[in-house]
């Protein structure tokens, strides 16, 4: 079975956040994290059948999807979860906010890696909770949590550790040993771990494997909230379906406090799309990963050949984290925007000298964007 990820897709006029914001300008938008790839035909067909049914009433979470999630976790990760551990959500971001607000008290303290996807910090600040950032450090070409700093940042009232694996940004896939060390710290200091694992399917490095931190041991699982979704893997954020896997009954009840109050369920079509993706989307996903590897290799080559740019190993995701600090730009993303490429500013992740590039697009678009970025780098100084 073949899949054509080079097929041109015109997203103008489709209410695309990424493409509409800069519509009418000669700018290639490679910032917000969705892709320009059509979802698997199996997903489109399932949605079409449900639309043709014509009834869009209130919906219960389908047992078939719970079973599919549990079966997939066992097949891919050797992780045994029970269907009743699953709490469905409209997206991972609401899950981050729920974890901070419901699993830590107003007088408790939160730890989060930095740089990090901006909604982690927003969740903590809007709760609000006292927090400390723990630096990611570059070791042998990978961005890793500074474990010594993690221990140093602990307070007597520390309660929640936020984790992102694979890392966004940074694209690191944590090894089992690295996760065991983090889990040991959490266990020793009685921390709850909320782990965003939305990019788990998008491992590009053939030598790396995703390990859910909750899968390490039962005693770790009982202190974990694992946030997952097919939204990134199958390009489904517009229909929206995510979930938390929470073994501990007490944690699950606390986490679910705002469900049906301020946080709603996924949509009917979100359930349909997620189930179809997990049942029939595996060949498409494998082909997409191969395509993204090719795109990543082109980014790596451009960065290596361009003065003032460096990047760590991109083990996962379709988000390249590029260090442009040597270009000494006052406002890096504005500089690249002026040269025709819209990137995510590193400042929003806590690293002003970086930019984040979304490589989830057709190769011809990416090639043009990379040429513009190289010219922008040459013009700096």
Give the key terms:
single chain; 381 residues; alpha/beta; Aspartate Aminotransferase, domain 1; Aspartate Aminotransferase, domain 2; eight-stranded mixed beta sheet; four-stranded antiparallel beta sheet; 13 helices; 14 strands; 38% helix; 17% strand; globular
Helix content: 25-40%
CATH C-level category of the largest domain: Alpha Beta
Calculate the mean pLDDT score and round it.
Answer: 97
Structural class: alpha/beta
Description:
By secondary structure, this protein is an alpha/beta fold. It folds into two domains: 123 residues, Aspartate Aminotransferase, domain 1; 224 residues, Aspartate Aminotransferase, domain 2 (3-Layer(aba) Sandwich). Helix content is 38%, strand content 17%. It has an eight-stranded mixed sheet with strand order 2-9-8-7-6-3-4-5, sandwiched between helices. A four-stranded antiparallel sheet has the order 10-11-14-13, covered by helices on one side. The model has no long low-confidence stretch (mean pLDDT 97).
């Amino acid at each position: 079975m073949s899949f054509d990820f080079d097929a041109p897709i015109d997203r103008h006029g489709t209410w695309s956040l990424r493409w509409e914001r800069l519509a009418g300008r000669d700018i290639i938008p490679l910032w917000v994290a969705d892709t320009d790839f059509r979802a698997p035909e199996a997903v489109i067909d399932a949605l079409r059948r449900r639309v043709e049914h014509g009834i869009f009433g209130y919906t219960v979470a389908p047992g078939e999807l719970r079973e599919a999630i549990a079966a997939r976790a066992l097949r891919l990760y050797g992780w045994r979860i029970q269907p009743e551990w699953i709490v469905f959500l409209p997206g991972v971001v609401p899950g981050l906010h729920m974890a901070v607000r419901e699993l830590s008290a107003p007088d408790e303290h939160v730890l989060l890696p930095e740089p990090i996807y901006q909604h982690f910090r927003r969740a903590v600040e809007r709760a609000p909770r006292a927090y400390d950032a723990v630096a990611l450090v570059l070791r042998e070409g990978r961005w890793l949590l500074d474990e010594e700093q993690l221990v140093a940042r602990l307070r007597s009232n520390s309660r929640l550790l936020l984790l992102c694996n694979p890392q966004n940004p940074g694209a690191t896939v944590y090894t089992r040993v690295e996760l065991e060390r983090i889990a040991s710290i959490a266990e020793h200091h009685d921390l709850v771990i909320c782990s965003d694992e939305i990019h788990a399917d998008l491992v590009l490095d053939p030598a790396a494997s995703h390990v859910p931190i909750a899968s390490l041991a039962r005693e770790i699982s009982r202190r974990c909230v694992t946030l997952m979704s097919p939204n990134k893997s199958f390009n489904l954020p517009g229909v929206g379906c995510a979930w938390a896997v929470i073994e501990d009954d007490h944690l699950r009840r606390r986490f679910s406090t705002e469900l049906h109050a301020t946080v709603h369920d996924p949509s009917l079509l979100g359930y349909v799309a997620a189930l179809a993706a997990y049942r029939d989307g595996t060949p498409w996903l494998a082909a997409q990963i191969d395509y993204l590897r090719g795109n990543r290799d082109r980014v790596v080559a451009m960065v290596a050949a361009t003065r003032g740019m460096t990047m760590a190993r991109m083990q996962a995701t379709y988000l390249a984290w590029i260090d442009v600090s040597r270009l000494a730009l006052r406002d890096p993303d504005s500089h690249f925007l002026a040269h025709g490429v819209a990137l995510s500013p590193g400042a929003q992740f806590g690293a002003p000298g970086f930019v984040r590039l979304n490589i989830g697009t057709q190769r011809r678009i990416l090639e043009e964007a990379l040429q513009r970025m190289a010219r922008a780098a040459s013009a700096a100084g």
